[in-house]
Amino acid sequence: MKTILISEGDPTSINYELLGSAFPLLQSLGKHHRIYLVRGAHNQTLPRLKALKTPIDEPGFYSLDWNPTGKTKTFVLGKPSKASGKMAYDSLLAAIDFQKEWGGDLITLPLSKEWVQKSGVKGFRGHTEALAEGYKRPTFMMMSGERLNVIPLTTHVPLKDVVKELKQFNWKELKNAITRSPYLHKPNIAYLGLNPHAGEGGKIGTEEMTLLKVGAKALRQGKLFVEGPLSADSAFLPGAKPYDLYLACYHDQGLIPFKLLEGKKGVNITLGLDFTRVSPDHGTAFGIAGKGCADPTGLISCLERLLETKTKPI
Description:
Blueprint: E1 3-7, H1 15-21, H2 23-29, E2 34-39, E3 50-52, E4 60-65, H3 82-102, E5 105-108, H4 113-118, H5 127-135, E6 140-144, E7 149-152, H6 162-167, H7 171-180, E8 188-192, H8 211-221, E9 225-230, E10 245-248, H9 251-262, E11 267-271, E12 277-280, H10 297-307
Parallel strand pairs: 1-2, 1-5, 2-4, 3-4, 5-12, 7-10, 8-9, 8-10
Antiparallel strand pairs: 6-7, 6-11, 11-12
């Protein structure tokens, strides 16, 4: 029997519509697993969901309120605010605390970095970085789909800071995270060049021959198979050599082709933790919240990933 925690994300987003659409599946899975929706005190609810103050040792789909005695806030779908941003952040912290105390895997539903920061949370960059801080260890974002696995070596940083971040990148910890991941087994890895045409042998930048070459060497020393640098503009074209895992130098370099090719079935898996954290490959979608057209495919894909039997071959 698995334990799965779901952090609610921003309560003014599409998240409760996703949960509502996936409710029959969540109830069905709750016959054999413990599933807890970690939520704050507000007016967005799900029908027939039993509320708990602490987890119980019985299968089921439950609401786990981290602040059950707090004043209930009223939120309007599609209208994010400082209050909803703070609620999303506090629910994430509560989910981390619950996970540390009781164990289990974690699904994080989308929140807005903008509104979390507007709520007064300084330096918030995203779930991956918050998990690194919460568990005091390096974490890595891996976008995983039916065909592709992509790790952006730098995540939510301005483009002008990418080289600085790459200079500080911890290749040893990435090697360890890849080696330990139940979703990767001796993967064929390709890394994308930072510059156009992978630098053209140093004519359009030298990072491929310095930073990335050193990183690839560190991975190879860990007995991982690595090729590159590849020209990013052709690495994902039909007919290009396929790899089990692609390393992108920055967020959009890897996530644009990933989202185009994988669609809504892609999930965000955090590497480097002792448990599995996944998140849908989409955002809060405030613009369609409350309109009844939110697609739960991403959430369903997260549930499917957590319930896969993944073990390292001996």
